[in-house]
Amino acid sequence: ETDASRSREARRIRRALLEHAFRLGPARIGAEETGRLISLLTDSVERVVEYRQAYIGELIGAVATPFLVLVVGALIDPVAALVLVACIPFVPLSIALFQRFVRDDSSASREMRARLSAQFLEAIQGLSTLVGIGAADRVGERLARTGEDNRLAVMRVLARNQLILFVMEGVFSLFLVTAAIVVSWIRPPR
To answer: pLDDT tens-digit profile of 57-108?
Structure first.
């Protein structure tokens, strides 16, 4: 059923986009816009469908499940549920604290990408001049070094993101599960 609903949603979105494009008419859609329209009708529609059909449901489930568990837990043992609710703010606080340590890597990566794109554009614009004066190889080597620096910066960001995910899972799972175990151990059975 999921594939069928995704397919129906993709057809619905594509039909709406095509109808809008036809309403605009050929005067408003030139050769340049045709390429954008094709991209919009293919990859962009798939992304929207994936977002609507998969991600939103998973997000709602991931956010709602802990609260539903707390509500059910409050019906069984209100004190234990209150202790767990009191522990919840520590999770985003610890994640935010950890993210402060990795901000520099993200900004360095953005700066490196901006530098690489500026150097590449400059080289492309002056390519005939660079070839004429024999500097194309030197500029190519500089671009290669900047590209490698960019790759390393991206790898650092990806490694930090993996570490953030590990911290999120660790803090959420270990801290809250440990708190629940401690509360259930301390609280006498009814």
So the answer is: 888 888 888 888 889 988 988 888 898 888 888 878 887 887 777 666 677 7
DSSP state, 175? I
The DSSP result for 19-82, as a single string, is: HHHHHH-TTT--HHHHHHHHHIIIIIHHHHHHIIIIIHHHHHHHHHHHHHHHHHHHHH-HHHHH
- For the chain, the average pLDDT equals 81
Tokens 């080289």 belong to which residue? 123
User: Which candidate, 110, 136, 105, places its Cα nearest to that of 123?
Assistant: 136
Task: Tell me the Ramachandran region of residue 189: left when phi exceeds 0, alpha when psi lies from -120 to 50, beta otherwise.
Answer: beta
Q: What is the pLDDT of residue 33?
A: 66
Against a cut of 0.70, is the pTM above it?
no
Distances (CA, A) of 45 to 2, 24, 157: 16, 19, 29
148, HSE (Cβ side, Cα atoms, 13 Å): 5
Residue 101: DSSP 8-state = T
Q: Which residues of the chain have pLDDT under 70?
A: 1, 27-36, 39, 102-105, 189-190
63 with 170: CB under 8 angstroms?
no
